[in-house]
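Duplicate of #3305? Posting structure anyway:
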């Protein structure tokens, strides 16, 4: 074992209490004290990764530099810590069983009966220890998805019990996130759900070291003492987690509750320095004190669930704070946009982002939106399929190419502006087989893209199977839509823009995945600035 310390974050009473945000906030406080920290997420579902899940099922699929399709909580980890994650930071039940079955097929277990204990739990522990064995991190925080008591979570809970025993109490602690609800009829906070949740954890062999209690009201001292007494934790280890105005307030609230100090004491760590959060508080000050506001539409097919576009939503928060404006995002379903009503829906917007996605549903609504903003000189930003839709719209309405479309939508398309990538043509499995992860892009000088990045060489993250068909590139550039970013190895068009438009940029990659609090993505920053300039011009 290395000198790495481990923190396990479990949840009880109900889902969606915010384990990811609490984990990221604690990590941020420890990072601010000079410790090297990473966070991993264990998801108890049987999918090998979230890549094949409908966004309505699980929110967006987050992609790391090394091409892992992961849970959206990894986006929170990166946005808070400003440190990239990897395949090792997200593990599912499906991945665990896949690895164990693969070993069994290869004869690794020498004819033994393969069982949940010890084989599955050992594989989970291997994933727990993997990040710590690199010597890169002082602390590894492991968030367990779901709730204590869920059937599918049992192997993970048992693995955590074993890991804590193997590591020792000074090297591994458990933080249990729970709920203390307020009953209006009784007019009081109730601790019984928390007591029952801790009892379930105790039955699994884990005594929580710290309780983080989500609540809509402040916890009085007598209630804290009651929770401490009945849950076997010291009073100073009962941490209040009040509902916050934004997720970015949570690190400051946890610092007020001294969560980081309690954790360092439990892990027998010496304090490296105080938890200074100067740049973070500067960001919050700009976020909460905007000088102006701007309306931006996001046109997509999953808008009913904003977690489907979580990274886009947060990238607008970062870019808005940088520009010191409040970005009011209007989520508009592309299925409801027609040639007749597009003006009614978009006329009052200062910018339009056409979101990524897969499949034909809502495609024409996206194309109608792009035609409107192109002809009316409204700032436009297209991401992945949004960029592809921009090229299809241009082909249809500027180049006048009959039947221009993507082969994804129509296999018999006459003019395949977007076509299947060569290395995708013989692939039959769906999971983890797209063009995934970080790739190089060369930027042409004198373009909007160069103005955005200030560099001719960048790296961005991808998740797609189809690409712009370079057979049409010369016709596009002659007509005014240029490829300002190209992959140097494959020739893949990464960025398109229209030269004589106010701000019209499409990116084949996903810039939202690299936007963080301390490093807002420049494409979002410039797009919001362009939208603000239009708003101020038309006052």
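Output from current build:
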């Amino acid at each position: 074992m290395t000198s790495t310390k481990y923190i396990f974050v479990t949840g009880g009473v109900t889902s969606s209490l915010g384990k990811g945000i609490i984990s990221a906030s604690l990590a941020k406080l420890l990072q601010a004290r000079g410790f090297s920290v990473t966070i991993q997420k264990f998801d108890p579902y049987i999918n090998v990764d979230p890549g094949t899940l409908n966004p309505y099922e699980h929110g967006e699929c987050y992609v790391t530099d090394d091409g892992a399709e992961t849970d959206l909580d990894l986006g929170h980890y990166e946005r808070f810590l400003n440190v990239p994650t990897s395949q090792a930071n997200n593990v599912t039940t499906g991945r665990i069983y896949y690895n164990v079955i693969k070993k069994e097929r290869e004869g690794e277990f020498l004819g033994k009966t393969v069982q949940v204990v010890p084989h599955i739990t050992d594989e989970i522990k291997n994933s727990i220890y993997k990040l710590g064995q690199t010597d890169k991190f002082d602390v590894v925080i492991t968030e367990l998805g779901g709730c204590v008591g869920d059937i599918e979570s049992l192997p993970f809970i048992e693995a955590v019990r074993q890991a804590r025993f193997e590591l020792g109490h000074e090297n591994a602690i458990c933080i249990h996130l729970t709920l203390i609800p307020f009953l209006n009829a009784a007019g009081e906070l109730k601790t019984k759900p928390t007591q029952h949740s801790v009892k379930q954890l105790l039955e699994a062999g884990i005594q929580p070291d710290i309780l983080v209690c989500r609540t809509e009201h402040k916890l009085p001292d007598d209630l804290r003492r009651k929770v401490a007494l009945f849950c076997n934790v010291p009073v100073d280890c009962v941490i209040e987690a009040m509902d916050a105005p934004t997720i970015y307030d949570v690190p400051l609230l946890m610092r007020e509750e001294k969560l980081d100090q309690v954790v360092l004491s439990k892990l027998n760590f010496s304090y490296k320095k105080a938890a200074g959060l100067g740049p973070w508080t500067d960001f919050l000050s700009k976020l909460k004190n905007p000088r102006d506001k701007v309306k931006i539409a996001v046109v997509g097919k999953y808008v009913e669930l904003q977690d489907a576009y979580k990274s886009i939503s947060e990238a607008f928060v970062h870019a808005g704070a940088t520009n010191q404006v409040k970005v009011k995002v209007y989520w508009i379903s592309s299925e409801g946009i027609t040639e007749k009503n597009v003006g009614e829906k978009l006329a009052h917007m200062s910018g339009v982002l056409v979101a990524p996605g897969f499949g034909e549903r809502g495609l024409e609504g996206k194309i109608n939106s792009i035609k409107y903003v192109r002809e009316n000189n409204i700032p436009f930003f297209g991401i992945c399929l949004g960029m592809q839709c921009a090229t299809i719209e241009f082909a249809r309405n500027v180049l006048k190419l009959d039947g221009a479309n993507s082969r994804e939508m129509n296999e018999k398309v006459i003019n395949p502006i977007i076509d299947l990538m060569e290395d995708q043509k013989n692939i039959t499995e769906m999971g983890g087989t797209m063009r995934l992860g970080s790739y190089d892009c060369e930027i042409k000088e004198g373009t909007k893209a160069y103005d955005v990045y200030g560099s001719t060489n960048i790296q961005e993250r991808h998740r797609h199977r189809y690409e712009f068909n370079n057979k049409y590139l010369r016709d596009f550039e002659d007509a005014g839509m240029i490829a300002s970013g190209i992959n140097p190895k494959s020739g893949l068009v990464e960025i398109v823009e229209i030269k004589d438009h106010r701000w019209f940029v499409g990116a084949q990659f996903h810039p939202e995945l690299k936007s963080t609090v301390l490093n807002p993505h420049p494409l979002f920053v410039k797009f919001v600035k362009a939208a603000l300039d239009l708003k101020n011009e038309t006052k």
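Confirmed duplicate; merging threads. The chain has 18 helices and 23 strands. Residues 116-132 form the longest helix (17 residues).
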